[in-house]
Design brief:
It contains four helices and five strands. It is an alpha+beta fold and 118 residues long.
Length: 118
């Protein structure tokens, strides 16, 4: 699905014109981009979250010449899919995860330390 198809789907499902649906989509995307650019996180429960991650500067190697090169630090956007989105894409994996969680024994609480007498 591309941008035009998404706009058409929004327009159809919400009885909007394509122009209005396009403006709605542009507003949503602009809000996500500007928030992540500022270092914030956009979380859509069930769908996922968008956040900024930093990759440290490092030394790489030019595969053609073998020379070491410096690779600058960069900031990148990252999307992490939510549990409902993952379950919709792969229901079998979601069922396996749920079965594993149900079969796992409950964890014991940490033991309390006894006070030493002076």
């Amino acid at each position: 699905m591309n941008r035009v198809e998404l706009i058409e789907r929004i327009a159809t499902q919400h009885e909007l014109s394509k122009a209005e649906a396009g403006r709605v989509l542009a507003t949503v995307l602009d809000a996500v981009v500007s928030t992540v650019k500022k270092g914030g996180t956009v979380t859509l429960p069930g769908f996922g979250s968008f956040k900024q991650t930093a990759r440290a500067a490092r030394t790489g190697r030019n595969p053609a010449t073998g020379d070491k090169i410096k690779i600058a630090a960069v900031k990148l956007p990252k999307f992490t899919a939510g549990s409902a989105f993952k379950a919709a894409v792969d229901p079998k994996a979601a069922a396996r995860k749920a079965a594993k969680a149900a079969a796992a024994p409950a964890k014991k609480p940490a033991a309390k330390k006894k006070a030493k007498k002076a």
